Amino acid sequence: MSFRFTRGLFDPAARVLERFDWLNDWQREYGTDAIDTYCISMAEKPSHALEVLFLADQAGAVELPEYCGIDVVPLLETEAALDGAREIMGTLFDNEAYGQALAARGDVQEVMLGYSDSNKENGFFAANWDLYRNQRRLADIVDDHDVDLRLFHGRGGSISRGGGPMNEALLALPNETVNGQVKFTEQGEAIAEKYANPRIAERNLEQMLNAQIRARAQALDQPKDDVPAEWLAAAATIADAARTAYQDLLDMDGFVSYFEQATPITVIEELNMGSRPASRSGERTVEDLRAIPWVFSWTQSRCILPGWYGLGAGIEAYLDDGGSTETLQAMYDDWAFFRTTIDNAALALARTDMEIASEYAAVADDDLEARFFPVFEAEYERAADLATTIGDRDDLVKRGWLRESLDRRNPYVDPLNVLQTHLLDRDHRTETEKRALRLTVKGIAAGMKNTG
Question: Which PANTHER family match (predicted)?
């Protein structure tokens, strides 16, 4: 069957059906390897995967039980989807048609994990904790159904969206999920930074291959993560308190207005950079704002709170609940997940400049500045102090060459930030000033080596 005749259908439906026809055409012309994966963004129900399988079947890309031309890949990115993974995937595995599709694909289920929206929803530490524990849960689910799991990590370029050293991320994966198959995204400026220079590209690939081999060897020796229950409980306590602190911030009256005034989000929305459009609904709310412009705006203002906000509150809550710094230091030394998470947050803290961020805060209305910026400063100081204490070092950055790079870069970026705040503070701008404002966004992004 084909969807060639779509007259009478609404435009969205017609476009969807045409895409499945094109999928079938391309596979026939170039082979199934040309397009063999269909990722379902915001997958939260089993029906989301079954709908794709049905449409692919109707277009001819699937002929069950003998043939299935695509991997149907749910993208789990919200807290509800991650926590509901057993119901979603278990229901699919028990479905006869889906089971036939899996069998035709070698009984391998690929699941994509979203780092961006989970971070925007829950804050940095809570999002990373949710992803860690749900990866272990997914491994248990596929094991129960005798299916092989391939995780696809949807990492962004920035720390706030799952970025950071790839080799360290691979070594920090739960042993249960390290089965020799792994996928991940490299996107945005990270591609140029890691692969534009052949020598750097070769070194980066060597590090990733080394990490994957080491992680696989470790998983073969110890198939399940042997993490002490005390450490798991500590991480859960930190995550719960960090999530509460972060979501309380987003729920504060006037937060969206502060975000509009104290960051260049209105300028970023007009640029051909990042996700388009910036908001899914066209309305300015944190929930509907896409993750890239969200992080991009905070990075521009040098207050990179998506990469650290809530961490200090979470750790402090654990300590107030009877936890000890010594336990946290032991977790840092011997638990790769915890160490990598703390190091990545420390890097985001190191790239934050609260003096420059205060210039952006001053652009906002006085009452908004007084309400929010002291909260940011307090959490920044708390998180920075606790991160260095847990890592047992004086500097947030543990690599000397990176500290040298930051110190050398900042004097060139700072004037662009100051110019940007002056331009943002104007009610009316000439065409020249509008162009200058757009150029400051691009210049700061180049200097920070990061958009969103």
Answer: PHOSPHOENOLPYRUVATE CARBOXYLASE (PTHR30523:SF6)
